[in-house]
Design brief:
Elements: H1 2-24, H2 35-44, E1 46-49, E2 55-62, E3 68-70, E4 75-89, E5 92-94, E6 97-100, E7 103-106, E8 108-110, E9 113-118, E10 122-125, E11 131-147
Antiparallel strand pairs: 1-2, 2-11, 3-7, 4-9, 4-10, 4-11, 5-8, 6-7
Length: about 150
């Protein structure tokens, strides 16, 4: 009888411990953006979300070609919503400069693979991979999810 009581007591303590751990676990906050706020973010091309996580969400907008870029720590997942652009990946960045921590920019890319991105296309650019919007038929609106 005593061993049964001890077993039940141990099970009770274990249950309380599990409940305490589960209750103490902090769940991340849910972030919700209404359509009009997302549209306003796309109108200027902005960071929609970047709050201490290993990812960021940009509402990106291009009307002209940009500089070539390399992100040593971030993989870019790009989903095109509107417009089209000639996009180059790989190759070598021309005149590379560190413009910020973990950010290299240059005037263009030599070599690399050229693709035309259109509405509905998705492209994943791994970290350390040069990439460049060489030509834009825009405006081009696209989500960029940066994963670190």
């Amino acid at each position: 009888m005593r061993s049964r009581t001890l077993l039940l007591a141990a099970a009770g303590v274990a249950t309380l411990a599990i409940a305490a751990i589960a209750g103490a676990r902090h769940l991340p906050e849910v972030h919700y953006y209404r359509a009009e706020n997302v549209a306003a973010s796309f109108a200027k091309g902005a960071v929609l979300f970047a709050e201490g996580t290993n990812y960021m969400i940009h509402t990106s907008r291009r009307t002209t070609p940009g500089m070539a870029e390399v992100h040593p720590r971030d993989t870019d997942l790009i989903y095109v919503l509107e417009g089209s652009a000639t996009f180059v990946t790989g190759g070598t960045v021309v005149d590379p400069e560190h413009t910020a921590e973990d950010e290299i920019r240059g005037t263009s890319i030599t070599g690399g693979e050229t693709r035309v991105l259109r509405k509905g296309d998705v492209i994943i650019v791994p970290d350390h991979t040069p990439h460049w919007f060489q030509a834009v038929e825009g405006p081009v609106l696209y989500y960029t999810v940066k994963v670190r």
